[in-house]
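User: For my dataset I need records formatted as: sequence, then structure tokens, nothing else. Please produce one.
Assistant:
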Amino acid sequence: MIEHEIEFRREELTSPVAERLILALNEEILRRYPEEGTPLHFRLEAAEVAEGRGTFLVAYHHGRPVGCGAVRLLDSARAEIKRMYIEPSARGHGLGYRLLCALEAEALMLEVKEIVLETGPRQPEAIALYSRAGFSRIAAFGEHHDHPLSVFMGKTLQS
């Protein structure tokens, strides 16, 4: 994928495009974590990504939606990355990293000092991406609880 072929657009969380991408993400997560009672933390409300509180971005390649991600305020100092997803056919071209950078830029506009996220051990490609982007492991935060199938990561933002 060439850089000018990718566009990130703010979308409503309830839009058909967002719903399709989130459904694909949920299906992938459930395939990776089929155990009963696994904490999957799917909750994200439209109000949490409203202007001034966060954003939901969709990545478009030649006008076709191929990925998404959100950032939401947790408090005045921290924001959380949620619902990061790149379609399998679009992976391996650096799109996830570019989407993560776009979400970090959105977090900086929210004037937070730290960005955090929750992922899982069966998503080694996600852990590798976040590590390359400067995230490191942290303790559980917010509504999340320590669980062997949760990995918590965070990063201090530089403005």
